[in-house]
Amino acid sequence: MSVILDALAKHACHQADTIAIQGHVHRVTYAQLTDDIATVEQYIHSQKAVRMAVLMDNTPAVLITDLACIQAAIPLIPVPLFFSPQQVQHTLASSGANLLISNLGATVEGLLTTAGVTYTLLPNLNIAGELLQVYCLQPSKQQPFSNGVQKITYTSGSTGDAKGVCLSQPLMDTVATSLFKATGACVADRHLCLLPYATLLENIAGMYVPLIAGATVCLPGLAQVGMKGSSGLDISRFMTCLCESRATSCVMIPQMLQALVAAVASGMPKPETLRYIAVGGAPVSEYLLSQAEALDLPVYEGYGLSEASSVVTLNTPSAKKKGSVGRVLPHVKLRISDDGEIMLRGDLFSGYLGSDSDQRGEWATGDIGRLDADDFLYIEGRKKHIFITSFGRNVSPEWVERELNVEPAIAQCCVFGEAKPFNVAVVVIRQGFNVETLAEAFASANQRLPDYAQVHGWVVADEAFSVDNGQWTGTGRPRRMFIEKKYRMVLNELYEEKK
Fold first, then answer.
1. Which of the pair, 169 or 283, is modelled with greater confidence?
2. What is the DSSP string of 39-50?
């Protein structure tokens, strides 16, 4: 049996009335949770599910459905809410899902129609106070994958179609157990899910870990935590939910941490119950971490990737270094190659969907990093993103962008400089600021950077980088190739002006 299901069975016996999942209105105790899992399992078996996709908001029903698929040993495909119709079509077709469950109402039918997905509407499923829509799909020829794959998580990536990363349940159990021990998760915890369920980091660290501990998973829905669309955030609602939920832990991407720091610094009430704020998904500026520390916010940066079932390294209360992403968790072994690339060995994924790749060997992450004398890992950027200036200096754009993104006037940025005498950036101005404030922002960030990494020219983006316009990934990273293509002409003009 799965470690998670085994834990649920014990909790149902020993703490039956403890709240396992807290929705916006509906609550599910550990005793009720086992019954709800059985109900969903029976339903999906009755509909002859072979591979099942879910396209759902963060409510109790999505976690119950996930757990039911584990119990039924039916591979599950979480479909990210930020995927375009074309990406949804690719995900459903490539995964071979023959059943889709959603809690998004008629919105999903419009999406499926736009995506050109053929479906038949099945009887609704009533679970945890929600009426779920169920669709029978007509899958094309199913791509094979190795035995034991329980979940296929799709990475949005920076180019091309999303890839399906195949994960086994033992691997996900192992990572969740590592995180349970490292974070000190306990029965008194209340974890507030801020990131979408389809984000593997939230799925593993935010949902599985609290259930192993016998704690409460808070799933009020993305709108209730302040999420607007794929990349917007309502700061007031975000802060209110952090406080009113009495959350003890949460997982954030850097943009959320920046919003939290700015809000607390401006005088908004600090969420006093939080004991562990995990931050990941994209690089975090050491300057931002220093600001959080000054406000006594318990922030712990980590590092991971889907191919390792999310988290690989993590800072913890007993082992923490600012600027690092922590020490390696027990389920993997890590080394740095001669050219600085992070290499992993140990419990890893079962290959990409449709690929014959065998992951029993060492895995090259594509990330550049270094280990210090105490085995803390520092991330320096993506290997394929590093550019060389005309003066022969290597620059990781992620490093420069970390420093720019903590400036109040800069909401988003993307840095370029390959074979050029100086670096430039495409910038999205934060609401409430104007073009005149940018010079001061760049001057401030440049003071924290060596001369070869400083940015001496910039253009203001026509619109915010977003998943919808293809310039942003779902985990908060710029899609450089598409941003460069759109602004190539005006960036070249910057260099012509300074000749």
1. 169
2. HHHHHHHHTT-S
